[in-house]
Amino acid sequence: MTPEFTREQSDALSSESQIEMVDPITGRTFVVIEKTFYAINHLDRNLAAIQRGLDDMRAGRGMSLEESRQNNLNRLTQKHGE
């Protein structure tokens, strides 16, 4: 089920690109934005994170796959034993 906006909420969205809504039960505030704006922002952040990883790799920062595997094995062994 996808909830629908009330008429008041729909009118508010028609006049703004985003609105704040407060959950009357928890008091938490949410920002409601159009899905396309969210998707663009989310995509930009993902691409930036990937680019940072590539930059780190090219600059020699980071670790090899084998080092990563060994670190993970060491952590699991410390936490759970042999």
What attributes does this structure have?
3 helices, 12% strand, 82 residues, two-stranded antiparallel ribbon, alpha+beta
Share of β-strand residues? 5-15%
Number of strands: 2
Parts with pLDDT < 50 across at least 5 consecutive residues: none
Q: Give the termini distance in whole angstroms.
A: 47 Å
Overview in brief:
This protein has 82 residues and is of the alpha+beta class. It has three helices and two strands.
Could you describe the 3D structure shown?
The protein is 60% helix and 12% strand. The protein has helices at 7-15, 35-58, 65-80; strands at residues 18-22, 29-33. The chain has a two-stranded antiparallel sheet. Strand 1 (18-22) and strand 2 (29-33) form a beta hairpin. The protein is elongated. The protein starts with 6 loop residues before the first helix and ends with a helix. The model has no long low-confidence stretch (mean pLDDT 88).
Write the layout of secondary structure elements.
Layout: H1 7-15, E1 18-22, E2 29-33, H2 35-58, H3 65-80
Antiparallel strand pairs: 1-2
